[in-house]
Recover the amino acids of this structure.
């Protein structure tokens, strides 16, 4: 079983659909804790270290063979939890793809708290790949109020509009998993990268590497 740690319930159907499309038969178990993101936004990701570790341990206790954290703000905290099973952050494969795309990467986020962790992750992947990358951050501050109000269409529209305003980049990174639909709504010729599909695929590979019959 693969567990997913979310900070919003909107991610549950997204990853269920991805599972049905690409990994049929895979058992997913979802753990949702919205307070983790609220506290991380107020106090910084390190402030929720104990709570994240407890949530991950709870998932393992319920039978998880690997855990995927779908929140970019706390993904680094989850990765560093030091559990007995693989713990992955959903945006790492996306960051690696951005580094491979070219030296100019633009990160878009609807939450300021997501910008620093995502930029740090891309820098880390650049060092790993021994590539020189310049990362520019763009806060789509008009989008998050739409998300909080349940206006998904408005949220996607704001993000897509911000994507289309980016022209001088080799890759555009949608820092939050919730932004993924904007990838298809945008019209820019610049490659637009989102995290849910590659992140889930990486977690499935990690789980099966430790449980070959899963």
């Amino acid at each position: 079983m693969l567990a997913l740690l979310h900070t919003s319930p909107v991610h549950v159907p997204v990853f269920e659909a991805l599972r049905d499309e690409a990994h049929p038969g895979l058992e997913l178990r979802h753990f949702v804790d919205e307070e983790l993101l609220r506290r991380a936004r107020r106090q910084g990701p390190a402030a929720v270290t104990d709570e994240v570790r407890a949530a991950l341990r709870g998932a393992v206790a319920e039978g998880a063979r690997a855990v995927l954290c779908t929140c970019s703000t706390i993904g680094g905290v989850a990765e560093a939890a030091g559990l007995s099973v693989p713990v992955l952050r959903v945006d790492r494969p996306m960051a690696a793809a951005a580094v491979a795309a070219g030296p100019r990467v633009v990160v878009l986020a609807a939450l300021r708290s997501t910008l620093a962790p995502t930029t740090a992750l891309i820098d880390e992947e650049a060092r790993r790949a021994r590539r020189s990358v310049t990362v520019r951050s763009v806060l789509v501050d008009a989008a998050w109020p739409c998300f909080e109000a349940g206006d998904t269409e408005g949220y996607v529209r704001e993000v897509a509009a911000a994507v289309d305003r980016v022209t001088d980049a080799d890759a555009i990174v949608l820092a939050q998993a919730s932004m993924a639909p904007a990838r298809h709504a945008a019209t820019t010729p610049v490659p637009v990268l989102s995290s849910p599909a590659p992140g889930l695929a990486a977690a499935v590979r990690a789980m099966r590497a430790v449980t070959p019959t899963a």
User: Anything to note?
Assistant: The mean pLDDT is 95.
